[in-house]
């Protein structure tokens, strides 16, 4: 069983990681080709491409120009500790024990517009590039076309070795980078809904944090059998059999 999540726009490269262990991204060559394209872009180009402010464009121009392998703990940081958005706040990876982070390294993957597919302990340098960005690379019209064959093939290899079940905790934007028609495995997609005015609805902020909570639940309990996910109870959520169907598993809570 492998769980996949999205990256985060917010980054933390200031605090010290709780472990000295690290690994290298599998697709650093591909990331280098994307970065080569990013290095050509001006601040105005970045504003148009990413829909960001001038201040953020300046920051990311500097990041793009500074990006340079090889990666080491001196110039990069492990992905699971570098990303700092709602999902990662829910996961609280900084509290994992050494055994738990080893389990995460084997069973958790992070999709990325720049790096493709990351293991938790893969070193990364600061960047901002959403998977949905309409940037042509190597003759491909966008990042989806660039990454889809590579990510699908890699996940097929990993799923074959990990029991053939993919737990999709990624956003729709990032999950589109996988060719589900060619994926050789079972995809289970948890959904998290909150009771609002008597109806269960997906509330984006809460759902993102819940994805991180489920990652924490998987890692802390070292879950390898999907059925055991139905016992998930962090943050007040519980498995709702009535709202679930097939491989869409719905977890609800009453605020």
Low-confidence stretches: none
Classify the helix fraction into a percent range. 25-40%
- Mean pLDDT value: 97
Structural class: alpha/beta
H/E series:
EHHHEHHHEEEHEHEEHEE
* Number of domain units: 1
**Count of helices?**
9
Largest sheet composition: 8 strands, mixed
Identify the overall geometry: globular
Nearest-angstrom radius of gyration? 18 Å
Strand content: 15-25%
Count of distinct strands: 10
N-end to C-end Cα span: 31 Å
Verbal overview:
This protein has 255 residues and is α/β, with parallel strands linked by helices. It has one domain. 37% of the residues lie in helices and 17% in strands. It has 9 helices and 10 strands. The strands form 2 sheets. Strands 1, 3, 4, 6, 7, 8, 9 and 10 form an 8-stranded mixed β-sheet that branches. A two-stranded antiparallel ribbon has the order 2-5. Helix 2 crosses helix 3 (54-66). The longest helix has 20 residues, at 143-162. The protein is globular. The two termini are 31 Å apart.
Set out the fold topology.
Layout: E1 2-5, H1 28-39, H2 43-50, H3 54-66, E2 77-78, H4 79-82, H5 86-91, H6 98-107, E3 108-112, E4 116-118, E5 123-124, H7 143-162, E6 165-168, H8 172-175, E7 186-196, E8 199-201, H9 204-220, E9 238-239, E10 248-254
Parallel strand pairs: 1-3, 1-6, 6-7, 7-10
Antiparallel strand pairs: 2-5, 3-4, 7-8, 9-10
